[in-house]
Amino acid sequence: MKFRRLVQANLFRKKVRLLLTLGSFTVALFLFAFLAVVREAFTRGGTIASASRLVTINRVSIIQPLPLSYRDKIAVLQGVQAVTHYNWFGGVYQDPKNFFPQFAIDPENQHKVIPELIVPDGQWNTFLKDQQGAIVGARTAERFGWKVGDRISIKAPPYLGSQAWQFNIDGIYHGQRQTDDESQFWFQWKYFERNVSASFKDMTGWYAVKLDSPDDAQRVAKAIDAEFANSPYETKTDTESQFAASWVNQMGNIKFLILSIGSVVFFTLLLVTGNTMAISVRERTGELAILKAIGFKNATVLLMVLAEALAIASVGAVLGLGLATLAIPVLGAALNGLLPNLILSKSMVVAGIGFALATGILSGLLPGIGAMRLRVVNALRRI
Question: Mean pLDDT of successive 10-residue segments in the chain (383 residues)?
Fold first, then answer.
């Protein structure tokens, strides 16, 4: 750039002010990245949901059970490829803060319905033969230092007697995609059935249904609900993405909350940076008049002011996004599984850079136009 040294000299004219402005950009970009990551974590279920899967729950609430006999009736409906079922366990491993999702699963159909979560064949075969066996996600295994062959104890929730249930870690699953959930803990439904009271026997929490084609989703969902209409256990069937979205909505309008905080951050940063650039231009009124007097064009003056604002925005973006890249995995680990895995994607980094550059241009535009319109005679009178 022809005027690089001039722009650089203007930037370092007030070093403390420059550092404080860069600090504002750094904190704002870190918050931008963190909010984007949290929003993505909450909405990821709907994003990665399979278009060819349905979820069937009790029409009253997901905490109300469904008869196990529904499985065979759903399986014979036209367009259904496979059906599996889940029971929420909700046990405690060592301390209540060590939360992770635990499900009693149907091993015969798990692979057919959820093929994207991969377990090595040898480990899966061991699990099938071991009634106290468990398969755990790679993230949870890493979190607690579990490995295949370990034997662990999980305390059952009060509604299941608060007794300690013993499990053998027979395998560790991995997701095919970075966004796949690797925090779950699976164990055999037969083990669950054997240890629960009579009121829980032959009942399940919900069904996951694999379809022949995504085009069948609405038709099959209606067929399932019609099959059990007017029964003691009516059903509510949604696509997996609809189910995930409704689950997130129960926590409130997370998207609106995050957008509100992000908007406040944006306008605060815009005001801080715009004020900094305005003061910087005002302090150099005389110098700008001299530059214009010796032949600098109005457009050149405008571009120099914008270049200063963009330089601050670019360095602040690099520092803020770099800090986020380092800090988000640490924050994710500190949350102990209370949130899904926090992932800072490339698209978020690109959006953050775009956010910073847009802020830089907007904050430098008005002071730059003011400098461009400055009349030499009037400016020199102020010296």
Answer: 78 87 88 86 67 90 91 94 94 89 93 91 94 93 93 92 93 87 92 88 93 91 94 92 75 75 83 85 83 86 89 91 89 68 85 90 88 78 64
In whole angstroms, give the CA distance from residue 365 to residue 303: 9
Beta bridge partners of 134: 169, 187
Q: Tell me the whole-structure pTM to 2 decimals.
A: 0.70
User: 195 CB contacts (<8 Å, ≥6 apart)?
Assistant: 156, 160, 163, 165
CA-CA-CA-CA torsion sign (29, 371, 12, 271): negative
- Tell me the HSE value of 176 on the side-chain side, using a 13 A CA sphere: 6
Residues 6+ apart with CB under 8 A from 268: 28
* 3-class secondary-structure state, position 92: strand
Q: Give whole-number Cα distances, 330 to 36, 110, 254, 340, in Å.
A: 16, 32, 22, 14
Residue 229 tokens read as 């209409």
Residue 35 burial by Cβ neighbours in a 10 Å radius (0-12, 13-18, 19+): middle
- Residue 281 confidence (pLDDT): 83
Beta strands 185-188; 102-105: pairing state: parallel
Q: CA angle 150-155-159, nearest 5°?
A: 145
Rounded to an integer, what distance in angstroms lies between the CA atom of residue 219 and that of residue 209? Answer: 13
pLDDT for 257? 80
Rounded to 5 degrees, what are φ and ψ at 168?
A: -105, 125
Alpha carbon distance 30, 36 (integer Å) = 10
Backbone angles phi, psi at 145, to 5 degrees: 70, 25
DSSP-H helix ranges across the chain:
4-11, 15-48, 70-75, 107-113, 121-129, 138-144, 189-195, 217-227, 240-249, 254-283, 285-293, 298-334, 346-372, 376-381
The rounded distance, in Å, linking the Cα atoms of 305 and 374 is 13
Question: What does the alpha-carbon distance between residue 222 and residue 201 come to, in Å, rounded to a whole number?
Answer: 27
75 three-class SS: helix
Residue 210, phi then psi, degrees to nearest 5: -95, 130
Q: Are 80 and 220 in contact (CB under 8 A)?
A: yes
Is-contact 81 103, C-beta < 8 A? no
Tokens representing 167 are 């499990």
Structure tokens at 305: 């002011």
